[in-house]
């Protein structure tokens, strides 16, 4: 029987895991993050989850060829260790993930930045198939980026190349980011910052956003379409800021295609044409203009890319 692979994607709010083979997720499930600072707090649930999925497929660990872990952290260039965390799963820094994988599953383990894992998945099996130069922006709780250059994911000297687009400075002197800088893309428009940004506005109480259960981008785009002034303001700021990141990506890496993924893409019908228009108007491009497309694999991209 052809071997399968265990894969897990640690997100800011949920841990997604599955059994994959040749770009297909054969079975998957997820559970809620109970402590975003701790990998260890979720290790046993992950072990039990994989055992359950394997049993559903009539398989065992002997049918597995390895384990892939996608994390919202920086990883070493050899994909063997976490080098820096960002207020999530901080106990992974310095943790021997290889030893844990061997002890828990008797499997070798690769660990990858989640944005790069999603890019690799889309390149091999999704919206980036057939392309050698790609830029991907993932809009989830935060903002992740990754780059494929001349047919290879770039990693750089330490492994972080292409992964810090969320902390590129789009508004010098702007909002304070938890990374210590000001004006980062994330601090200006990330989902985690959105509620505070909305509540700071003087006309917040007169906006329909003050009445919703959760201030997220689904609410922003929905109410903006209805003409709510604050929602329009926040929507347009987000579009302009995301566009700035894409323009920088084009100028730095010269991609053939730009892929945008993440939960915010529920509003892709508004986001994609707006970003494409700004990119076409403002980016310097000497070949065919880079096309902006939605990710094709949804939540499964990182699972098949890690």
TrEMBL record:
It comes from the Bacteria. Pfam families: ROK. Belongs to the ROK (NagC/XylR) family. This is Glucokinase.
């Amino acid at each position: 029987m052809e071997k399968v692979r265990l894969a897990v994607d640690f997100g800011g709010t949920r841990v997604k895991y599955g059994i994959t083979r040749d770009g297909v997720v054969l079975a998957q499930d997820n559970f809620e993050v109970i402590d975003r600072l701790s990998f260890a707090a979720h290790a046993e649930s992950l072990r039990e989850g994989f055992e359950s999925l394997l049993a559903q497929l009539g398989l065992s660990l002997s049918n597995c060829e390895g384990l892939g872990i996608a994390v919202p952290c920086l990883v070493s260039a050899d994909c063997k260790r976490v080098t820096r965390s960002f207020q999530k799963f901080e106990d992974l820094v310095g943790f021997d993930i290889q030893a844990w994988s061997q002890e828990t599953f008797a499997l070798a383990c690769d660990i990858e930045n989640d944005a790069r894992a999603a890019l690799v998945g889309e390149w091999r099996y999704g919206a980036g198939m057939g392309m050698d130069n790609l830029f991907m922006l993932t809009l989830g709780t935060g903002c992740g980026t990754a780059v494929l250059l001349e047919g290879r994911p770039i990693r750089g000297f330490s492994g972080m190349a292409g992964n810090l687009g969320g902390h590129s400075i789009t508004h010098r002197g702007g909002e304070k980011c938890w990374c210590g800088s000001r004006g980062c893309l994330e601090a200006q428009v990330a989902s985690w910052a959105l509620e505070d940004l909305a509540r700071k506005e003087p006309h917040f109480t007169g906006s329909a956003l003050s009445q919703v259960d959760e201030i997220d981008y689904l609410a922003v785009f929905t109410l903006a379409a209805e003409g709510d002034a604050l929602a329009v303001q926040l929507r347009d700021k987000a579009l302009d800021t995301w566009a700035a990141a894409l323009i920088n990506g084009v100028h730095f890496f010269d991609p053939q295609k730009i892929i945008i993924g993440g939960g915010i893409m529920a509003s892709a019908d508004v986001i994609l044409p707006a970003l494409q228009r700004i990119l076409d108007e403002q980016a310097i491009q000497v070949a065919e203009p880079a096309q902006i497309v939605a990710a094709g694999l949804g939540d499964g991209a990182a699972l098949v890319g890690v």
